[in-house]
Specification:
This protein is α/β, with parallel strands linked by helices. It is 39% helix and 16% strand. It has two domains: 30-117, Leucine Dehydrogenase, chain A, domain 1 (Rossmann fold); 142-277, Rossmann fold (3-Layer(aba) Sandwich). It has ten helices and eleven strands. The strands form three sheets. It has a six-stranded parallel beta sheet with strand order 1-11-8-7-5-6. A three-stranded parallel beta sheet has the order 3-2-4, sandwiched between helices. A two-stranded antiparallel sheet has the order 9-10. Bound molecules: NADP nicotinamide-adenine-dinucleotide phosphate. NADP nicotinamide-adenine-dinucleotide phosphate binds at residues 143, 166-169, 171-173, 194-197, 201, 214-217, 235-238, 274-275, 278.
Length: 299
């Protein structure tokens, strides 16, 4: 393998330490604690794991957190009432509703009900709009924001580079496009987005200086799709059956790691690449929301 590994776990730990230091500073100087409310409907096992990880990370960093676990049959109106209550709570600065929601609940209505100032996931159209026009007083969605910070802290400046994103979801691909194209430090790339409607994606991915895969297809990106020396960011998290693994499965990304690592200059592993950054950015967004609520944004 010739590529340098981008250690997302290590960078996320640095960032979490910085968050914890700032949180401690708020407590010391202002007797003030950021707070995050996490709402989970139903008993989806993966969602339970994600919610548990977020709440544990809050505890570790000194952020107040509360979990609202509601039964699968919760009506949309009941959920909206809870969100209205959390919007008004002064100890809660960030609200996260864990997706996917049960089919009878309209996701867009839920997102729209969250106070944009507490929308730490950056799903509210107001924050999405702010991100697109380059305003800094909203939030950036956690995974794409994590990718930007990974690049920055690995010494990769996207300015003037051709960044190719595979995938155009509202959660990863589209926000990455919006963030990387901004005329700001840590961005300013020429960005192309490849999706299932793209004719001849390989011709495009081979031009990428920075190739970001966010497709949800195990090991989709092979060495022939990569330009020699490219930086590879693998957002994908896929479970594949593995009879040798204790759990009977293992996690792989959207990139064929072994062969691509022989061609790339830098690459994120899965797990341990983008994954840990997502929660770290959620913690940062919660801190930001808390500081905004007290007008402490210059701290
Ligand atoms: P998604 O909503 O399913 O979107 C997948 C995107 O990939 C779609 O835009 C789709 O195109 C595109 N796509 C699918 N097959 C393709 C192909 N053959 N060629 C080109 N494009 C193709 O997925 P997502 O939510 O963005 O997640 C993507 C991956 O990232 C998943 O593995 C997910 O688990 C992972 N993820 C990781 C984190 C993290 O914290 N690390 C966070 C979020 C997601 P169309 O739009 O044309 O259908």
């Amino acid at each position: 393998m010739s590529a340098t590994i981008i250690n997302g776990k290590q960078i996320a730990t640095q960032l979490n330490n910085e968050t914890a230091r700032e949180v401690a500073g708020l407590a010391r100087d202002y007797n003030f604690q950021p707070g995050l409310a996490v709402v989970l409907i139903g008993d989806n096992p993966a969602s339970q794991v994600y919610v548990g990880m977020k709440v544990r990370k809050c505890r570790e960093l000194g952020i107040y957190s509360e979990q609202h676990i509601l039964p699968e049959k919760t009506s949309q109106q009941e959920l909206l009432q809870l969100i209205t209550k959390l919007n008004r709570e002064s100890i809660i600065h960030g609200i996260l509703v864990q997706f996917p929601l049960p089919a009878h609940i309209d996701q867009e209505a839920v997102v729209a009900a969250i106070n944009p100032g507490k929308d730490v996931d950056c799903f509210h159209p107001e924050n999405v709009g702010k991100m697109l026009i380059g305003k800094q007083d909203g939030f950036f969605p956690c995974t794409p924001y994590g990718v930007l910070v990974l690049l920055e802290r690995s010494g990769i400046n996207p300015r003037g580079k051709h960044a190719v994103i595979i995938g155009r979801s509202n959660i990863v691909g589209k926000p990455l496009l919006a963030l990387l194209i901004q005329k700001t430090a840590g961005a300013n790339a020429t960005v192309t987005c490849v999706h299932s409607g793209t004719t001849d994606p390989t011709t495009i991915t081979r031009q990428a200086d920075i190739l970001i895969a966010a497709i949800g297809r195990p090991e989709f990106v092979t060495a022939d799709m990569v330009k020699p020396g490219a930086v590879i960011i693998d957002v994908g998290i896929n479970r594949i059956t593995d009879s040798v693994a204790a759990k009977g499965y293992r996690l792989v990304g959207d990139v064929q790691f072994d062969e691509v690592a022989n061609k790339a200059s830098m690459i994120t592993p899965v797990p341990g690449g983008v994954g840990p950054m997502t929660i770290a950015m959620l913690m940062q967004n919660t801190l930001k929301a808390a500081k905004f609520s007290r007008d402490l944004r210059t701290l």
